[in-house]
């Protein structure tokens, strides 16, 4: 029996001194296919659950979903993608069916159907599209596929190229800083195995906890185990252009006779009382916001996004972190690198129509809006934007919608056009 499990792990590493690394994982497992000829895929959901548990034990913040439809896969992927910050390590894991249609690879949701290539294409999720979206926000990407390579649907004779006659997913080239691995060589099928997990997933789970092995060494050990387990019938394969060593498990460094860590400095109050500070100095080519968090680490939960020019009242200081209050009443911690003292604001806001326009549209830009006007294209990059999605359908958080309304009201007061 062919391996009915697709494992897609996407690890994103954005190198930046601005944020400490946060480990984020998106894990999806599809077993209960509604229309496929082969419906019973118990290992898909089981592998996804096991990988979720393992990644969680390694310190990843895991988002998971089981038996998801096409719309649910796209929505969950976009939500996690939007939560990524510079320096993050993000994993995207998909277990279920995948298929090659023409020259492209598709992940198959549980509600997919079709007896011809075009119908199946429209009801599936293009792998290359997901990767392109993630690469637009990440410098380094890791993709690992453990998939059933034969199409699970009965297609017409005229489309034999996408049915059982086509074995293997089409090759994915790794760009600079990327790593792509398959559970078996191109043109072959992955085996299901007789145990709790597939041979490839079992080996992956075995070697993921290694704190001494980088990704390449982990995959070499996985390949050795799979070849031995399958008597050479399945040979994992990868394509890599990584420059730096990448470790999926946190490394443990032992220092003999190391002195005890210094006692952390006590929190020092900062005398203010007014909105004397503002967010300033953000990279115009970066995310375009400063995170307001519930703690003094970049792994603390993000409460809201603060754009350039957001006025702040500094309440307290702890090292390089400020506890602040926004003019809307939100409170939390923010890194002081992007907070500047500007003095007490006068009774009348010294704002211009242009500054308000830039603040409002920056919210849409960082959420993927494609600007059509010359002014918008000059001010913001459309790189990686959501083509064809109107502004009214761009997904904004509640705090972002509130900020947009606030900025519009200021524009109205200034009679901006």
UniProtKB/TrEMBL annotation:
First and last residue of the signal peptide: 1-20
SUPFAM superfamilies: Caspase-like
Caspase family p20 domain span: 21-152
GO MF, one annotated term: cysteine-type endopeptidase activity
InterPro entries: Caspase-like_dom_sf, Caspase-related_regulators, Pept_C14_caspase, Pept_C14_p20, Pept_C14A, SH3-like_bac-type, YARHG_dom
GO biological process: proteolysis
Swiss-Prot/TrEMBL keywords: Signal
Keyword Nucleotidyltransferase annotated: no
Similarity annotation: Belongs to the peptidase C14A family.
Protein name: YARHG domain-containing protein
């Amino acid at each position: 029996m062919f391996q009915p499990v697709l494992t897609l792990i996407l690890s994103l590493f954005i190198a930046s001194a601005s944020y400490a690394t946060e480990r984020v994982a998106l894990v999806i497992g599809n077993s209960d296919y509604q229309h496929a000829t082969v419906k019973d895929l118990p290992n898909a959901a089981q592998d996804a659950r096991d990988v979720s548990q393992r990644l969680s034990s390694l310190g990843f913040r895991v988002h998971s979903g089981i038996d998801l439809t096409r719309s649910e896969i796209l929505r969950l992927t976009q939500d996690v993608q939007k939560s990524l910050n510079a320096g993050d390590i993000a994993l995207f894991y998909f277990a279920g069916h995948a298929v090659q249609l023409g020259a492209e690879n598709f992940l198959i949701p549980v509600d997919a159907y079709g007896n011809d290539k075009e119908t199946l294409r429209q009801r599936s999720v293009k792998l290359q599209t997901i990767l392109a979206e993630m690469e637009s926000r990440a410098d380094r990407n890791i993709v690992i596929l453990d998939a059933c390579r034969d199409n699970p649907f009965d297609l017409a004779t005229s489309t034999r190229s996408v049915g059982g006659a086509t074995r293997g997913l089409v090759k994915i080239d790794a760009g600079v800083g990327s790593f792509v691995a398959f559970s078996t060589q191109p043109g072959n099928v992955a085996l299901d195995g007789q145990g709790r997990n597939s041979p490839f997933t079992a080996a992956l789970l075995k070697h993921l906890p290694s704190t001494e092995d980088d990704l390449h060494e982990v995959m070499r050990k996985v390949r050795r185990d799979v070849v031995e387990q399958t008597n050479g019938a399945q040979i994992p394969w990868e394509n890599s252009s990584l420059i730096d060593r990448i470790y999926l498990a946190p490394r443990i460094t032992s220092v003999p006779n190391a002195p005890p860590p210094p006692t952390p400095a006590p929190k020092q109050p900062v005398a203010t009382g007014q909105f004397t500070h503002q967010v300033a100095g953000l990279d115009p080519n970066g995310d375009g916001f400063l995170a307001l968090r519930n703690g003094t680490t970049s792994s603390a939960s993000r409460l809201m996004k603060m754009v350039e020019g957001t006025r702040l009242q500094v309440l307290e200081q702890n090292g390089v972190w400020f506890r602040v209050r926004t003019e809307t009443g939100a409170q939390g911690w923010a890194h002081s690198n992007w907070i500047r003292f500007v003095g007490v604001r006068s009774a009348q806001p010294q704002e211009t129509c242009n500054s308000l326009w830039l603040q409002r549209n920056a919210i849409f830009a960082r959420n993927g809006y494609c600007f059509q006007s010359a002014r918008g294209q000059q001010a913001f990059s459309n790189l990686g934007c959501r083509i064809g999605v109107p502004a009214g359908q761009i997904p904004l958080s509640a705090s972002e919608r509130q900020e947009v309304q606030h900025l519009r009201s200021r524009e109205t007061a200034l009679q901006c056009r």
